[in-house]
Amino acid sequence: MTSTGLFQVLALVGFPGLSLLAARHLKPVAWVGPVVVCYAFGIILGNIPGLGLREPLSISVSGAAVFLAIPLLLFTTDVPRWLRLARPTLLSFGLACLSAMVSASLVGLALSDRSDEWWKMSGMLVGVYTGGTANMNAIGLALRVRDETLILLNTADIVVGSAYLLFLMTVAQRFALLFLPRFPNATGWDDDEAQRAREASGFTWSRARGMGKAFLLAVLIAGVSAGATSLVFGGLELPVVLLLITSLSLAASFVPSVRHLPGSYEMGDYALLVFCVAIGTLADASRLRDTGLFAFAFCAGVVVLAVGMHFALAALFRIDADTVLITSTATIFGPPFIGPVARALRNRELMVSGLTTGIMGYAVGTYLGLAVAWLLRP
Question: What residue spans define the domains of the chain?
Answer without folding.
Answer: 85-184+191-264+284-376
